[in-house]
Amino acid sequence: MNWRAVARAGSRKRPTSAGEPGAFAALSIPLFRAMWLAEFAGDVGNWMHTVGAQWVIIGHPDAVLFAALLVGAARMPSLALAVPLGAIADLFDRRRLLLWSQAFQVVVGAALAVASLLGRLTPVALLAFTLLLGLGSALSMVAFQALVPQLVPPSRLHSAAALTQVNLNIARVVGPMLGGLLVAVIGPTSVFALDALSYLVFVVVLCFCTVPGRPPGPRPQFRHALVEGVGYVRRSVLMRRILVHSFLTGIPCAAVWALLPSVSTLRLGAGAPGYGLLLAAAGVGSICGAALLPLVRRWASDNASLILGSVVTAAALAVLGAVDSLAGAALALFAFGTAWMVMQTPLAATMQLIAPDWVRGRAMALFQTVRTGSQSLGAVGWGLLATNLGLLAAVEVSAAAMALAALLAVCWPVGPGRRAAGQPDEEHVQRAATVIPRLPG
């Protein structure tokens, strides 16, 4: 595919003076922009569903237990089935997988809304619906991540990865606010219905846009595909290092999402509006971080970005645990959101860039498993630590853990030094494979 022609057709904007595409350059490609907006609608719907589900179980005697089970049901498919789903994304047509997974979520979401409307939505039924929605979401996420490098040229892959994270952060703010408002005014049924409609947006985009399908090539057996995908990642030193750094940075970052409700309520004395302000500060920070990425990449390597982001994140966590004002906490979370983008985007983009198309679904599935698993384990660990040592101690320990992750990036880099001026990303990654030699086995 002629990427230059696609880029010229999508936008007249020029890259920055140093040859680095702008922060939101991937949005100039119409197909990616349409799918990104559809993904945003689905993410907002997911958060609205979370609010509606919590409202349904709030009066149940075992509400605390069911709330924890709902979180587990939503994330379990991504943790337990990501690699098999990644193999499916490599073996079958990715456009059809996206279409059927989104259509499946439309049907499940509609059934959930009907059950709520009829008053037959028990906590057990809600758990079952949430698990099914999580399964569809997991397949959709893996297929979409594997498809992104087919939608945008390599030079704009960092922009696409950053926009995906911006998408999630904005949805984390908009979804709960909109969902809470609708539940309070109309009821949870409206939230479940809108959640089903949010998946329908993606179905419409896939039906009316020409989306690349499965890459050409032989199709191995499913069992062999699983072994082959894991073996490929295991033999790549660069991929292994990306997974390790994603895990070690994900655990400290999980402290923000796990402890922020307690920090805002118990330490800062802020109610729901204050908690929403803190979430918004992190979301705005992620947008600013995405805008800064071209400048950072112009002057620093991906490994330097990882180190810089880790250090700033550690400082933001330390400040979050020390301040006792809402404004100070908001500034800390703004810095956290900015640093998160600078730190995590190069990892995701490099993983997408170095994985060949025939194995990209499995590689991104492993990456997603590590990222989700680290945040899930971290959330549980920080909750237990806060219970036994106190809230302040847990936040400060997370800051120390992030500082150690930064030190590891110094000793165990994920790539070579800064790119030469105008050096394409493909050449930079090939140089990384040379600087970080592949080990036997």
From TrEMBL:
InterPro entries: MFS_dom, MFS_trans_sf, TM_effector. Residues 1-418 form the Major facilitator superfamily (MFS) profile domain. SUPFAM superfamilies: MFS general substrate transporter. Keywords: Cell membrane, Membrane, Transmembrane, Transmembrane helix, Transport. The chain crosses the membrane at residues 63-85, 97-118, 124-148, 242-260, 272-293, 391-414. Pfam families: MFS_3. It is a multi-pass membrane protein. This is Major facilitator superfamily (MFS) profile domain-containing protein. It comes from Luedemannella flava.
